[in-house]
């Protein structure tokens, strides 16, 4: 039976079940990542309390950092098996007022980094708001090798995709060999 050879970590491109699971994770991630936090943010704005304002402002900062990371990763992270599932769990932890994951992550990881980068970000944002791209690029160039970042970002993406393609080819060859061995064993019986 061909189903016995299907790996548990099948690609989202293999069969209907993984595609449906991927779609469910996308809807769940959208709900958890945007709809619920947007509504909770609205409720926080309308309430007299300030602790909920801090929770949701912090959530949006941390969530934005996650989106920035994903964009720099050139979507290669989506090839990691279980990434969508892990992202759903991570977003749940971030958004949950019970766990306060966004506040915890902000305090332990992002706060000091953002404080250090604040003058640079303010200068670049101010330049961009005025439409002065050259000044923004010059300010960034003082702190980051922009050309190198663009070059190595693309190079890293290419290497990741090549490795993923090679791994996929090896897995397909392994499955084909297993099917052949299974067919040969069935002929012997």
Describe the overall structure.
It is a single chain. This protein is mostly helical. Helix content is 79%, strand content 0%. The protein has 6 helices and no strands. The two termini are 15 Å apart. The model is unreliable at 1-13 (pLDDT under 50).
Task: Summarize it.
The protein has helices at residues 16-46, 51-72, 83-95, 101-129, 133-143, 146-188.
Assign a percent range to the helix content.
Answer: over 70%
How far the N terminus sits from the C terminus, by CA atoms, comes to: 15 Å
Beta-strand content estimate: under 5%
Radius of gyration: 23 Å
In terms of per-residue confidence, which ranges show pLDDT below 50 for 5 or more consecutive residues? Answer: 1-13
Counted by DSSP, the helix tally is 6
Structural class: mainly alpha
| Overall residue-averaged pLDDT value | 81
How many β-strand stretches?
Answer: 0
Please summarize the sheet with the most strands: none
Series of H and E elements: HHHHHH
Query: Judging from the principal axes of the Cα atoms, what is the shape?
Result: flat
